[in-house]
Amino acid sequence: FQIATKDPLNPIKQDVKKGKLRYVANVFPHKGYIWNYGAIPQTWEDPGHKDENTGCCGDNDPIDVCEIGSKVCSRGEVIKVKVLGTLALIDEGETDWKIIAINVEDPEADNYNDINDVRRMKPGYLEATVDWFRRYKVPDGKPENQFAFNGEFKDKDFAVNVIKSTHEHWKALIAKKTDGGEINCTNLTVSDSPFCCSQECAKATVDAAPPCKAANPIPPEVDKWFYYQKN
């Protein structure tokens, strides 16, 4: 499920690729996602901006978050997190930052303050994260993903600066100072944005959405294991 950036009010919808509903593959030894996977609102990785650290432009999405706490969150749940570090994924030639964070309400949150705390408290978790992102698209017939900094994680301060930078890109987008292409910037909360709409307008948009129909059956390959030798 993803934030549908091209739809009015950006609802959360199941991603579609080549006309088919998209599911994440189970690449041995990982079953589905190994963290709570989400995004930071009011951020945007600008596809017209070449990142000075990675040398690649942004992926046109909000910045992604891997939340490593003990609770499995519900889809669409909004939580407050503590930023710990970041990984610079290069996904099909685009910069795709992955912020490592922990829910501030997690029982062990006080023990995590920087990326080295993750390495100390959860040995192997960061290595598994790199492995997951490197190989998750291989079952789709795509090559392994690459990383900036040789797959090394950057610390909290670096990650916060990345978030601040992508927030500035979002502010330019929502103020119509940057061309967002097909991104729909209609919103209710940024009063000085030219895209700001009224509650009545937003309600009309929601009411005009087609009613939910019966869910498609889950294809059998969703529960398939994929195994291949690492390069």
UniProtKB/TrEMBL annotation:
Pfam families: Pyrophosphatase. It is an enzyme of class 3 (hydrolase). InterPro entries: Pyrophosphatase, Pyrophosphatase_sf. Its EC number is 3.6.1.1. Coiled coil: none annotated. It comes from the Eukaryota. GO terms for biological process: phosphate-containing compound metabolic process. One of its GO terms (molecular function) is magnesium ion binding. Keywords: Acetylation, Hydrolase, Magnesium, Metal-binding. The keyword Metal-binding applies. One of its GO terms (cellular component) is cytoplasm. Its cofactor is Mg(2+). PROSITE patterns: PPASE. Belongs to the PPase family. Homodimer. This is inorganic diphosphatase. It comes from Mesembrinibis cayennensis.
